[in-house]
Amino acid sequence: MHSNEDIEKDLHGPERQFAITSWAVKNRTTVIVLTLLICVMGIYSYIVMPKVSFPEVVTPEIYVGTPYNSSSVVDIEKLITKPIEKEINTISGVDEIKSTSIPNYSIIDVKFNYDVTPTEALRKVKDAVDKARGDSNFPTDLPAEPNVFEMNFSELMPVMNINLSGDYPMEQLHEYAKHLEDRIEDLSEINKVEIRGVPEREVRVSLDLYQLEALQLNFDDIGNALRSENLTMSGGDILTTDQRRSVRIIGEFKDVAQIRDVVVKNEGQREVRLGDIAEVTFGYKEPESFAREYGKSVVMLDVIKRAGENLLDASDKINAILKEDIGTAIPSDLTVTITGDQSEQTRVSVDELMNHIVLGVILVVGVLMLFLGLRNAVFVGLAIPMSMFISFTLLNLFGISLNMMVLFALILALGRLVDDGIVIVENIYRHMTNGEPAMKATRLAVGEVTMPIIAATTATVMVFVPLLFWPGIMGEFMSLMPITFMIALGSSLFVALVVNPALASKFMKVESDHMPTKRMWRTAAIMIVIGVIVAMLGGMAKSTFLFSIGSLTVFFGLMGVANNKIFVPLTDRFQNKWLPALEHRYEGFLRYALSKHHPRTFLFGTFGLLLMAFVLLGVFPVKTLFFPTNEPQFINAFIEAPIGTDILKTDSIARVVEAQVMKVIDVPEYKEVREVKDEDGNVIGRDTVNFLVKSVISQVGQGTSDPGTGEVDMGSTPHKARVQITFVKYADRHGINTNDVLERLQNGVTGYPGVVTTVVKNADGPPVGKPINIEIRGKEIEGLLGVADSVKKFIEERNVPGVEALRIDIDRAKPEMPIIIDRDKARRLNVSTYAVADAIRTALFGKEVSTFRVEGDDDDYEINVRLKDDYRYDAQQLMDMRITFRDMLSGQIRQVPISAVAHEEYGSTFSAIKRKDLDRVVTVSSNVIAGYNNNEVVQQIKDEMAAGFNVPDQFNLRFTGEQEDQAKDMNFLMMAFLVAIFVVFLIIVAQFNSISYPLIVMSTVIF
């Protein structure tokens, strides 16, 4: 006699089982404990993971900054930039060399291939710079060593601005800002805090030129006198009464009066003190930046986060510091506002992820409940949080932060996490309805579908594998998406093959989910109470995670009641009436489609629809953008006056642009009346407020370059300014699309004559060039500028729609006053070129000769020596200034007017000389007006230039910037798409061991 089991084996062959699943079913207790451990680890990992806006991309990009005083752009290029570039060009692994030579400074940007580590790149560039300095022609009198450093773009831009204003003197506001600076910089998450809108303090020694010359003194005499009096020195140790005491000579200046009393010369019986020939003041340097909020001057703190740290934690700690200090260390009537807080968008994204997880579980359970019942549907629904917990754990172990790309990948994976679990749980349910015991049904059910599930998941994962090889900065930025997606899908496969079978074999039932009424109400009450408590704790702690868990618990409690009263009867009706009817109709449709000549009809009809789709694409082409158009959170108006513009003039221009911005956004359309409440929540009045705009911040000078283009400021930028408009959260905008506001601003902000003003939204993604970016390369700078002028004029005459404002990145009209040394006269009078240059630089710019410290203040302030303003701004008096020195032959003091050995000229020069891969380059660039497609605008410019613009043979013209990067990335994506299709095809071939079936399956990709 054969048992039924033996007969089954004879009919269907040996039982197929998956070893890992069989082990999990056999060791269910172990799996349950493992599941609880995964939950704990997942929650912990989610809490401790750094949360930032965007991936903090570390690129092998090295900068070399070299100062060389009193040098023109041509001299900087010849003496500094070209020798260093020549040595860097010999380094292996270099992808691109760019440089900018400006007066007194050289900046070289070296980009390496991504197979070179940043540490290795830094070492190679340092070696090349040292080799260049060893050349006999390289200047030996640099004021400072070349600065070779790695640039981390995540530490360039502030994550928030803290603005201080009130009825207080600027000195007091500065003190409050310094207090906050010290407090915030103590946080481990913060890299540095930069104070804007108030100049640094200094001791300024403004010398009277006539008295200086009458006393036969020079700048070095003044500096030496101050240094010799302002010092603290160790005198060694002294032994007294069996004790060894250290001896210190303390002579540092305690106040400005002591500086004025320094003796600079003895005239017979008369002592000449510094205060007799100079004005000595403890005040502020010439401003390098201005800051305003809604047109009102503020002291601004730019808070820059340390790479890899948690943005949300940093924001919370900073807000806690402000809450703690306002009313204690900072007066309560001081207005303190936070603008540009990047953590707000990150919080919204994290909250959306949690909402998607909760909503995903609810929808999955709700749908599957109709087919499997509530209890069994929950097993599948658990795949979402379990897969997320495993993903959080692995991402945290790999040191990956929770950023926009990771969140996007997790949300993208949500729809795929339950697929494997649905197949497995449904197959287990089918076996159990056939009367098989739970453990056996689980082993058999999983064994039947394991290979198809693994093949399907592997095929999906392999689609994303080519993206791991995406080159360049975009690849580094996007790489977290495929990594996260693969981790999430791998986690869901583990849950489907290990966790779900173990739980199903223990808890799954095929009988009705109907629960006795008394037990139902008791269970529901317990779950609702626990859920409400957890949700309330989450609300008080402002924890979206706890609030979501509590809400989910309450939901399941209510679902228990709803299941008994509503869903069990509904499920019975669906399974016994509606589903059979649906299956019957579908079967009838299939029979019709597969009978007689109908298969050919459907096949040719499908091909016809495909052909029609291609025709429609040709008639109505799809606009392409590399990144989708987003509703901006920020809009910036960047202002760039000609190089050489004084910062006060730039500030006045910025005020004009501010007024134009306010004219666009300060309109009734964006206003509403709101209640004004006191601290106790009582209504004390009503006020009209702008519901759309959160803040308008203006900055002039430092820190105002456009980060979206990858520009790096190495010093002060008195000719640049920025007006930043920050909008409220998306949910509070009353349906206003901020892209419409961007378009209005681009039309309404007309700028200022002779000044380039561009209005752009915050860029999502890594820094790229302008949408319109035309590079002209060649050898001769005047010729390059001539071609650039012709290109600019040509495009403007063609009136190409969408072009905002064309600009040339080099200004040939930077005013200058070169001083030409007559070497023969200088040699006869024994005056060196350095003596002339040092005297003029000290007279104009000043020279730091010592430092000054205020009691109770840890900061050191510079003591700077220069001429009074009456002499500094008079060119003739500067040229008549006498160089005082001791003649080494006669030993006598000699005074030689600068005009005796040099003469001044008036003219203009280049603002900079830029180079790319050892060639000089000039760039014509522009943004694209909102509402126009970047690719279409650039293509129209290309077509116009191809038809009517001739480039001289000695010059080369290329479209670069965003377009060049996009072309490279699109080529890679096309190749990645083809590779992914081929790999998926191989997987399906391996699964079916056939060619025809995989071709049928792959046809779905085409159709």
Characterize the structure shown.
This protein is α+β, with helices and mostly antiparallel strands and 1007 residues long. Among the domains are: 61-151, Alpha-Beta Plaits (2-Layer Sandwich), CATH 3.30.70.1430; 160-200 and 290-341, Alpha-Beta Plaits; 201-284 and 818-905, Multidrug efflux transporter AcrB TolC docking domain, DN and DC subdomains (2-Layer Sandwich); 633-769, 2-Layer Sandwich (Alpha-Beta Plaits), CATH 3.30.70.1430; 962-1007. It has 32 helices and 35 strands. Helix 3 packs antiparallel against helix 19 (480-507), helix 17 packs antiparallel against helix 19 and helix 20 (517-540) crosses helix 21 (544-594). The two termini are 54 Å apart. Residues 1-13 have low confidence and may be disordered.
Distance between the termini: 54 Å
Principal-axis shape equals elongated
Number of helices: 32
Structural class: alpha+beta
Q: Which spans of ≥5 residues are poorly predicted at pLDDT below 50?
A: 1-13
The CATH topology of the domain at 201-284 and 818-905 is Multidrug efflux transporter AcrB TolC docking domain, DN and DC subdomains
Would you identify the CATH H-level superfamily of the domain at 201-284 and 818-905? Multidrug efflux transporter AcrB TolC docking domain, DN and DC subdomains
Q: What is the second-level CATH architecture of the domain at 201-284 and 818-905?
A: 2-Layer Sandwich
User: How many strands, what sense, and barrel or not for the largest sheet?
Assistant: 9 strands, antiparallel
Mean pLDDT: 85
Strand content: 15-25%
CATH class identity of the domain at 201-284 and 818-905: Alpha Beta
Helix content, binned percent: 40-55%
DSSP strand tally: 35
Rg over C-alpha atoms, rounded to the nearest angstrom: 37 Å
